[in-house]
Amino acid sequence: MALKLKLKSFIGSKQESVQTPIEETVTDILTIGAAVTKNKVEIKPVNPHEEQEIIDGIEENYYDNESFDTSLHELQKLPEQLDADQITEDCLRLRNQLQAVSKRVSELILQNHLAYATELQQVMDLQRTLQAAGLVCQTGRKHLSHARKSFTVASLGLLSNYRKRQQLIGLLKSLRTIKTLQRTDLRLREMMEEEDYCGAIHLCQECQKAASTFKHYKCISELSSKLQDTLEMIEEQLDVALSKTCSHFDHQHYSKVQQAYRQLGKTQMAIDQLLMHFTSAIHNTAFTIILGYVELTSASSGAANFQKRQYDDLCKHITTETFTPCLVDLCKAMWEIMKSYFKTISWHALNDQDSCDGDSEIFHQRYVGTKLDHGRSRIWEDVQQRVKKFVLATDLSGFKFDEFIYILDIINRMIEVGEEFCASKSEGLQDTLKLQSLNYFKTHHQIRLDELRMFLENEAWEMCPVRSNFNILHLVEFRFMRKWANSRHMIPENELTTEDKCESLTTDQESKSYFSCYLEEGNPFDKQFEEEEKEDVFSALLETDGELLSDSDSDVAEDLKKDYIDEITGEAHSYKHKRRSSSRTILHKQTPLITNTTLNVLRVMGKYLQMISILKPIAFDVLSSLTQLFDYYLYTVFSFFAPDASSHNEQAVNPRLLNTLQRIRDNLLTNSSVMYVPNKKDPDASTDKVATAKMSSVVQLSDPKSLFGLAERVVATESLLFLAKQLDYLQPYLEELIPITKKTFLSQFYSQTVKMAVEVRVPVYGVVSGLSVSYESVLQQMSTVRWDVKEIMSQHNTYIDQLLKCFSDLRKKLEEVDKRVPLPKVVINLFWEQCVKNANRTFVEGFANAKKCSNGGRALMQLDFQQFLTKLDQIIELRPIPDKEFVEAYIKAYYLPESQLETWINDHKEYSSKQLLALVNSVDHLSRKSRQKLTNIIEETDKGRRL
C-alpha cells in the first residue's frame, strides 16, 4: 500500500518532465519500434496469429485519446496488496504488446515506401511540364505583338468605311421608325382587344420615347399628345379589366393586369382601386339579385320603378315564397366575390415573393400585403351587412320548421365562411340570427305545445309497436347525432351502419375548410340533395291465428331455435313448432312501452336539438322550451291517471314530485282551454303557457274488469319513463351545447323533473291497487270477529279466505292485462307491493277496531296473519313481503310489559293515534294510571302531527 502511494506521488511530480508519446517524433518511434521489434524477433520469433491476439488484447483506453497517461493507468490498476509475481506478469504482457505494436508499425512503413517514391516522381514530372508550358506562352505573345504591328494601318481604313455604312443604316432605321409611329394607334387598339395590356403599354411607352427622340421632325410634333391620350385610355380599360376579377377571378387575366400596372409603376394604386371595385361589386351584385326577385314577383301586379329604391326598402318586397331561393342566390354571389378576393391574396402571396429583388419591390410587397389583409374585414363587413339587412327585412315566423332549419343552416354556413375568411365572429349576423330565431321559435314552440295537448287529449294510450331495441337514434330527426354518439361509443356494435363505421375512422384533422373544398369548383351554398332516409322504427310483425309473430328469426334467442324434448311425453319438437309461442313471448316482453304521442314528442325534441346544433346563441332558450315538452307530458300523465291517488292509497305521493307538479302548474299551465292563436297586435300577450289537457272519452278508468284501465295506465306511465330515459341519454350532448353559466338549469331539470318521473308509478298504480281489492269489505268482516276469546283457536277466520281469493282473482286479471300489454317486472312487483301494503294496513286497522281483545284473540290475529302470508307466497312472487313487520309488531305490542310499552309507542310513529289508542285500551295488564298516561302521550303526539 505504501509503495503504491509513493509510485503515484512520484509519477505525479515527474509527469511534466516525462516525455509523453505525443512529444516523440515519428522517426524516433519508428526507429525505436523497429529496433525493439528487430531485437525481439531475433530473440523470440512471434507467430502472426499470436501477434494479432496480443494486439487485440490491448485495452481500448490506449486508443481513445493521444494524451492518455499509460503509466498512471497501469499504476491505478495495481491492487492494495502488491503481488510481485503479478507485477512481473503484467510487465511481461505489456512488453509483448509493445513489441507487437512496434513490429506492426515498422511493417506498415516498409509497405508504403514504394508509394511514396512513386508520388514524388510524379511531382517532378509535373514541374517539368509546367516549365514547358511557360515557354510556349512566351513564344505566342511574341507572335501576337508582331501581327498587331503589321496589320494596324489596314484595319483603320476598314473601320472608317464601316462607320459610314452604319450611319446610313441608322438613318434608314429612323425613317422606318417614323413610318411605324404613324401606324401605332391602330396596333394599340388591336392589342387592347387581345388583352395584351403589357404589350400595349410597352409599345405606347416606346412610341413616346421615339417621338421624344425624333421631335425635331415636324411630322412627329403632334404624335406625342396623341400617344398620351392613348396611354390614359389604356389605363381606363385596365381598370375595367381589374374590376372583372372581383366576381370571377382568372389567374392568367389577373397576372396580365398586375404586370401591366407594374409596367406603369402604379402597383399601389391598383390595390386601392381593387378594394374599391370589390366593395362596389358586393353592393351592385346584392342589389341586382334582390331586384331580380322583386321584379319577378311583382310583374303580374304591375311593377313599380324598383331600380331607384334603396337596398333596405327593396328587401322588404321579397315574398315568403321567394325568400329562401333569393337568400341562396345572394349567399352564392357573395361567396364568389369572397372567393375571388381569397384567390387575389393567394396570387400576391405567391407571385410577389418571386419578384422581390429590390428595396422598392419589398416596399410595394408590404404595402400590398397590408392593404389586402386589412381589406378582408372590410369585404366581410360589407357582405355581412348585405345578408343581415336581407334577413331582417322578412318575418320568418310563418315558415315551416324544416325550411327554417335550412335557412339557419345557410346563414350559419355564411358565418363559418366569414370566420374562415377573416377570423370574424360576425356579431351582426349572429344577433340577426338570434333575433329571428327567437321570434320564430317563440311562435313555433307555442304551436307545438298546443299540438302536444291535442295529441294527449286524443291519445287512447295504446302501445305503439316499435322495435325491441328502439331508441331515439332510429328516428330521422336524431340521425345528425349518430356521429356524436358513435364517437363516444354509445351505439351498440350490432347497430352500427357502414356509414357510422366510416365516420368513426375520420379524424379531427379532416375539419371542414370552405376555401379548400370549394376554391376551384362548387359552392358551399348549393343545396345538397340527400336520399330520403327511411326509418327502421316499427317492428316487423306478422299476425297468425290471432298471435303476433316476428318475421325474422333474429328476434329469437339462439337457445330457443334448438330442438327440444317434451319432459312429459318424451316427444321431440323442433324450433319451428315452438317458435310461435316463444317468439311472441320474447317480443312481447322486450318491446318498449311507448305511444304515438311519445314518438311525436321525441320528433319535436329532435328538431329542437337540430336548431341548437345549428344556432348555439339561442341554445338555452330552445333547451328551456324542450324541457317544457317533458314537463307538460309529465304533468298530464299524472293528472290523467293519479289525480286523486291519496284517496285510494294512504301512501303519500313523493313530496319532491308534488313540488315539481306545482312548479309546472304555476309556470306552464293556464286555465284557458282555448288553443293558442298568434296575436301580433298584442306583443305583451302571454304566449308561454298552454291549457290543461283533458283525457279522451274513449279511455275508461272505472271498469273493474280491465283493472280500472291498468293497461292504459301502464302504457302512459312507462312511456313517460321511456321519454325520461331518452333524456338521460341526451344529457351529455346537452351539456356540451349550452353555456357553462346555464348548466345549473340543466342540472336542476334532471334532478327535479326527469328523476321524478319514476315516482309517478307509485300514485298511478296505487289507484289501481286501492280499487282492485275491496278492503272495506274485509274490514267489515273483521269487525264481526270476536277477539276476546279465552281459548287459542286452531282455525283462521273467513275474511282471510276472502282476501286471498281477491288476490288470486287479481292475479288472473293481471295475466289477462299482460297478454294485451307487456307488464314489466318492476311494475308487477310495485303493484303487488302496494296491494300487500294496503292489505297489511287493513289488518292493523281491523285489529284496532276490536273493542275487546284477550290473549287468545291476539293469538288468533297472529294465526290469521300467518295464514295470509303462507297462502300469499303461492299467489305472488314478491320477496320479501313488504310491511310484514308493521302487522307483526302491532300484534306483539299487546304482550309488552308496562315499562316497555311507552318506549314502543314513542318509537313507532307509523301507526295512527286511533290505532295506538286502541292498542292501549285493549291491553288488560295496564293499570288505570298507566293507561291514562299513555293516552295523554298519544294525544300530544297527534297534536304535534297536525301542527
Number of helices: 35
**Can you give the helix content as a percent range?**
55-70%
Query: What global shape is seen?
Result: flat
| Backbone CA Rg | 53 Å
Low-confidence stretches: 13-43, 501-511, 540-584, 672-686
Supply the helix-strand structural class: mainly alpha
Number of strands: 6
Averaged pLDDT: 79
Strand order of the largest sheet: 1-2
* Main beta-sheet annotation: 2 strands, antiparallel
Distance between the termini: 103 Å
Strand content: under 5%
Describe the structure.
This protein has 947 residues and is an all-alpha fold. The chain is 68% helix and 2% strand. The chain has 35 helices and six strands. Strands 1-2 form a two-stranded antiparallel ribbon. A hairpin with a 6-residue loop joins β3 and β4. α14 (359-392) packs parallel to α16 (427-457). GO terms for molecular function: SNARE binding. Residues 707-939 form the Syndetin C-terminal domain. It holds the Pfam family Syndetin_C. This is Syndetin-like. Residues 55-347 form the Vacuolar protein sorting-associated protein 54 N-terminal domain.
Blueprint of the fold:
Blueprint: H1 2-14, H2 26-43, H3 48-56, H4 61-64, H5 70-76, H6 84-182, H7 184-193, H8 197-213, H9 223-244, H10 251-264, H11 267-297, H12 311-315, H13 320-354, H14 359-392, H15 401-422, H16 427-457, H17 482-487, H18 498-505, H19 514-517, E1 541-544, E2 547-550, E3 564-565, E4 572-573, H20 575-590, H21 596-614, H22 619-641, H23 645-648, H24 655-667, E5 669-670, E6 690-691, H25 710-737, H26 743-754, H27 761-772, H28 775-783, H29 798-820, H30 825-848, H31 855-875, H32 884-892, H33 898-907, H34 913-922, H35 928-946
Parallel strand pairs: 5-6
Antiparallel strand pairs: 1-2, 3-4
Helix pairs in contact: 1-5, 2-6, 3-6, 7-8, 8-9, 8-10, 11-13, 11-14, 13-14, 13-15, 14-15, 14-16, 15-16, 15-21, 16-21, 16-22, 21-22, 21-25, 22-25, 25-26, 25-27, 27-30, 28-29, 28-30, 29-31, 30-32, 30-34, 31-32, 33-35, 34-35
